[in-house]
Amino acid sequence: MTSPNVSILMPVRNAANTLQETLESIQSQTLADFELIAVNDGSDDDTSKILHAYSTNDKRIKAVDIVNGGIIKALNHGLALCQSNFVARMDADDLLHPKRLEMQLKHLQDNPRLSITSCLAKPFPHNSYNKGFHRYVDWLNSLTTSSEIYRDIFVESPVPHPSVMLRKKELQSLGGYKDNGWAEDYDLWLRYFIAGKQISKIPQVLLYWRDHPNRTSRTDSRYSVENFLKAKVYYLLRGPLLNRETIIIWGAGQMGKRISKHLIRSEVPVSVFLDINPKKIGQKLRGRPICSANRLPNLWKQSTRPIVLVSVGSHGARNLIRNQMQEWGFNETEDYWCVA
Question: How far apart, in whole angstroms, are the C-alpha atoms of residue 327 and residue 172?
């Protein structure tokens, strides 16, 4: 028995209201040689009934029922069942462009060094109330190349999980999905980053990403700001901050306070904060001095193995700082990283 070209991995939990629309979107793919591994994670609505009805009529759809154990258990259970080495993630409330599987499979086959391919996303429904979600999607869509994605990986999760296609064996070699106390998808992108793997996006909308009040990112504590900060510090210590002896934080506001708390708890050698606010300059934060940002070139020369963490929440402010750092001759992802 030959394996399908693509395995679609879709964990499902109480998605009866949107599941049929999603399944019909999957069935409309131009690449017809796929299997759908739909893992019903102990739903108590009609999810299982719908999945089994579709699987009876379409043998490509494999309905798998498990006792509710959470998304990470469901993902790993489903991943083990995937027959193809090319695995596309999907959620049970989103929709696919008809050519998504076809285009992403070709992207991976044409680029053997590429580990993960993603795409642009479009929020729906159009009357979605959450402006923050739309801003987040706009930011996601601005990052398409591997260098752009990894440049901003410590700002926020730079890839929508249900937009990706990846290589099963490579994912398994990295340990599959893990529960480290924060979002499993962000943890995965950070592990790919630390391992030196490439992620890029096809610059076309291939995922229609549903916005609703019950999104996991709004209801699961693993997606809290504090847990995201813990994830960032955990992987900063295993990547950019390795062997650095002087950590300079640009930003003495709320974001700088938050990230420095976790860094200092991890015994990271934070030496100084930088800011442009004259009311803050000359004060101390967490026992470290707050200096004028204009002093950075001199502080850099006086420091041993320094690195700068630009920790400001505003996208516009980050870009202004990037321009200033470039003017001073600093190289992003070598001399400094943006962390938010």
Answer: 43
Which domains occur in the chain, in start order? 6-225 (3.90.550.10), 241-338 (3.40.50.720)
In the DSSP assignment, the letter for residue 2 is P
Cis peptide before 213 (omega within 30 of 0): no
Q: How far apart are CA 45 and CA 157, in angstroms?
A: 31
Cβ within 8 Å of residue 143, ≥6 positions away: 149, 151, 152, 158, 201
Q: Long-range contacts: 43-50, Cβ < 8 Å, 24+?
A: 43/12, 43/13, 43/14, 43/15, 43/16, 43/68, 44/14, 45/14, 45/15, 45/16, 46/16, 47/12, 47/13, 47/14, 47/15, 47/16, 47/19, 47/92, 50/16, 50/19, 50/20, 50/23
| pLDDT tens-place string over residues 210-266 | 997 776 766 678 889 999 999 999 999 999 999 999 999 999 999 999 999 999 999
Q: Per-residue pLDDT for 129 more than 90?
A: no
Nearest Cα to 190, choosing from 177, 202, 203? 177
**Nearest to residue 188, comparing CAs of 282, 132, 197?**
197
275 pairs with which residues across the strands? 292
Contact by Cβ (8 Å): 230, 181: yes
How many H helices and E strands in the chain? Answer: 13, 14
What's the CA gap between 16 and 76, in Å, rounded? 22
Calpha distance 152→340 (Å, rounded) = 9
Model pTM score = 0.95
